[in-house]
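Hey, weird one. I pasted the tRNA-specific 2-thiouridylase MnmA sequence into the form twice and got a warning about non-standard characters only the second time. First submission, copied straight from the form history:
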Amino acid sequence: MTDATTILRDGAVSHSIPDIELGIDKPRQNTRVVVAMSGGVDSSVVAALVQASGYETIGITLQLYDHGAAVKKQGACCAGQDIYDARRVADQIGIAHYVLDYESRFKEAVINHFADTYLAGFTPIPCVRCNQSVKFKDLLETAKDLGADCLATGHYVARVDGPQGSEMRRAADASRDQSYFLFATTREQLDYLRFPLAGLSKSAVREIAAILNLPVAVKPDSQDICFVPNGKYSEVVAKLRPGASEPGQIIHVNGGVLGEHEGVIHFTVGQRRGLGIATGEPLFVVKINAETKEVVVGPRASLAIKRMTLTDVNWIGEPVQGEDALHGRRILARVRSTRPPVPATLLIGAGWSVELDEPEEGVAPGQACVFYDLRDGGDRVLGGGWIGITSNQIEVSHLLG
């Protein structure tokens, strides 16, 4: 992108905003782009930049839920106020805008999965499931049905044309990089997607929104899961799955019973506060056994994990001849969205596993482990999978052969 478009404000040249080059081999005026507009500042700026760069632009907003107070919650997405904000932006920049009702699909694929995963003692990431099953699947197909040449979103991640096809890379602004949440994107989807904010910082995006006088320029970012309006996950799970909050025992890693709890849905791995026990030493949730309704706690050292098994692995790195070819591959692995990638090794046996060079704390089943290419300093996203079984007692000599 280049600073080619000059915006006038109050009769004077105020600033230059990026000219968006989407890499589609046809004249811009003949290129149709669907922009996923959530009602936030990022997707609004994408729509404005794409339109200003001369593309035929169509905005689509998904109505995903109508969850009581959530529809009025500031900083959520895809509900009442946010749909209104997206429509205001579309009207201001002069593009067509449509609202699609995906509420039933979202409930089935994301909200119900969230509740069931929590009940199973895992820590889900519904944002990944939403991208995987709704935005990059259903919405992408809708964009194709509209004859669009690509689907553009406000994610902070990069897509580049590599020698062997499309590649996903981390955003220029490491503090905003969202590649962790997009690891499940397929090669076919990546070919069709565009991410115009890849090279911009959040401050630059807000500056552009202000220059364009967009009504969402100072709108706060979303902080919580969109369908959890007060941040209390257990309340949502209890509402969706009545009777799910059954009592059980809190057990120390050494086997001693420390007390009782009112339901595993009130706990997550790594949690320290709100355990309901007093032992004189700081204890953390180490493991949740939903079948036996046991919450296992222990000292901080018990959280250190070196190896994890993975399920539903998605590989978008270079093409390989069979999964076995990746056995022993050195990578950088990211086990939380808020943590940097760290050196690790891929192990391919009966399934996929990752062994970290150094233990990481709070690696929770249900979260994602995302792979980055060690050879380029971790810029390229290679894929990832969902964390299943974790262990801090590593015996992998038989796997390494």
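That's the output from the first submission. The warning seems to come from a hidden character in my clipboard, not from the data itself. Residues 2-211 form a domain with the Rossmann fold fold (CATH 3.40.50.620).
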